[in-house]
Amino acid sequence: MEKRLEGIRVLVTRPRERAEELCFLLEDEGAHVMHVPLLELVPPEDVRPLLAAAESIQRYAWVAFASPSAVDALMDALREAGTTAMLSAVRLAVVGPRTARAVEGHGLTVAAEAPAGTAESLAEVLRPALRPGDEVLLPAAEEGRRELEDALREQGARVTRVTAYRSRGTALADETRRELEASPPDVALFASPRTAEAFLEEAGREGLGAARLVAIGPTTATALTHLGLAVAAVAERPTSEALVEATIRAIRG
Asked: How many C-beta atoms lie closer than 10 Å to residue 133's C-beta?
């Protein structure tokens, strides 16, 4: 079988918790993966709002997840609160197949999934299912986008957004700097505006060399453009599989 990325050096900047599947798929296509995680996912500084939501989980009609990390964080809080069993009475909505798999991995059922893998499309999916005044819990990244929250509020839902986790910057190792200087990547993948900013802060534009840049979605693509960087391809969905296909398009045109 043809390996469509044979010998291509691909820079992956996703946090370690989110990069395993992507790196495997890239290597399966023959790519040489340089994993440079400049952000790590850590618990919120104040865990009390998350724990309070877990303690009263039965009050919510829906829980909406935008990432696997949010799923794991809420499940940890539910176990600590001793209310895991109560989640069975709550309907669960997800953005994207990776998040759906995270929910199902805990033995739970997904009631609604965004077909386009975006927050906006999940809000549209939920529109006919939401009743006025329904309470929706949204465990999210501290720095996460607000589109889903805003759209649900516009539909009349009462949204409780709690910080489930946050990202913290990590320094670029000297060995990695030397590797980037000696063998710049052919393609660099960015899955969020913050990872792009973190990379430029640590490695500068010279760290990218002449790499073709791939964005996980339009928001990240716009951020890269605002940073003065040209985008070669944008993933059609925010999934590892779509990022691999976008990488292939960036190389082959």
From this structure: 9
Terminal C-alpha separation, the chain: 21
Cα Rg, the chain, nearest whole Å: 19
Q: Distance (Å, rounded) from C-alpha 8 to C-alpha 147?
A: 35
Could you list the pLDDT tens digit for every one of the 253 residues in the chain?
Answer: 789 999 999 999 988 777 889 999 999 999 999 999 888 889 999 999 999 999 999 999 999 999 899 999 999 999 999 999 999 899 999 998 889 999 999 999 999 998 767 788 899 999 999 998 899 999 999 988 888 999 999 999 999 999 999 988 888 888 888 888 889 999 999 998 889 999 999 988 888 999 999 999 888 999 999 999 999 999 998 888 999 999 999 998 7
Q: Are 169 and 39 spatial neighbours (Cβ–Cβ below 8 Å)?
A: yes
Are the beta carbons of 213 and 229 closer than 8 angstroms? yes
Please give the helix or strand (H or E) that residue 178 lies within, else none.
Answer: helix 174-182
Q: How many CB atoms lie within 10 A of CB 204?
A: 11
- Report the C-alpha gap between 251 and 233 in whole angstroms: 9
For residue 92, the number of C-alpha atoms closer than 13 Å in the C-beta half-sphere is 27
